[in-house]
Design goal:
The chain is an alpha/beta fold. 36% of the residues lie in helices and 21% in strands. It has an 8-stranded mixed sheet, sandwiched between helices. The protein has a 4-stranded mixed sheet with strand order 5-12-7-8.
């Protein structure tokens, strides 16, 4: 069983494309779609509910009584997953390969020492309606480490990833008490096992002004990460201190 997490907040314009791209997945697996909407104030929930009514055997909506914020909303979604593998498609992103789940599951089935795997993403800039491939790892590197991700975040966002549920359960205590973006969660997974890389472009990361992270100016994102690095370093008990220190000095 593969659990697919959809996190959403005011994604009325995008959520249909996101869910449709998940429903188009093909392969030799069973799937559940776990949706955690964080108290959207637009029409996102009505769209989600219409899909849940149409596909009650596939879609499970988590109840929401208060706005949790990005990190705690993701945590409750992780906790709700029962699949051996977990994939994420954030509500404003979408997948473009119908065999994404199958390919990533096959990689994790083949290489048991991996905690997760990912594929390169295509950036979609909503303001200009242009697509651009994100930077890939160089050479034929099929496996990355936590240090590699500190040097450069080749993954870029959650929607291109698949995790072993067992690896998610081993994330450090306290990680979800911070603002835990994909970067630190994937670094932590790299401490549990290898990070597998597949070269196929299979997901689109939408960059728009209302995005929680992409809505920040570039210098704002950099400044925010620098504020968080020391907290991330502490959560990892300073095992990667030299790498984090080098990152801050770039």
């Amino acid at each position: 069983l593969i659990s697919v997490i959809v996190t959403s907040y005011n994604h009325e314009k995008y959520i249909q494309q996101c869910i449709e791209s998940i429903l188009k997945q093909r392969g030799n697996f069973n799937v559940e779609i776990v949706i955690g909407d964080d108290c959207s104030t637009d029409g996102t929930m009505s769209i989600i509910e219409s899909y849940s009514e149409k596909y009650p055997q596939l879609i499970r909506i988590l109840p929401n009584t208060a706005n949790l914020g990005i990190t705690r909303n993701l945590k409750r979604c992780f906790d709700a997953c029962v699949g051996e593998y977990i994939a994420i498609c954030e509500g404003d992103d979408y997948w473009i390969d119908e065999y994404k789940l199958q390919k990533q599951m096959d990689r994790l089935e083949k290489d048991k020492d991996l905690s997760m795997c990912f594929s390169p993403i295509i950036l979609f800039f909503e303001d200009t309606q242009k697509f651009e491939p994100y930077i890939k790892p160089s050479g034929e590197n099929e496996k990355l480490t936590s240090k590699d991700l500190i040097d450069f975040n080749y993954i870029g966002n959650f929607s291109c990833c698949m995790y072993r549920n067992s690896a998610i359960k081993r994330l450090p205590e306290g990680i979800f008490d911070l603002y835990a973006v994909d970067w630190i969660i994937n670094i932590c997974c790299g401490e549990v096992g290898g990070i597998g890389y597949l070269a196929d472009y299979m997901s689109v990361y939408r960059k728009h002004r209302s995005g929680a992270w992409t809505g920040l100016p570039q210098h704002g994102r950099r400044s925010r990460l620098l504020q968080l690095v020391d907290e991330y370093d502490k959560v990892l008990n300073y095992r990667l201190h030299d790498s984090f220190l080098a990152y801050k000095e770039i």
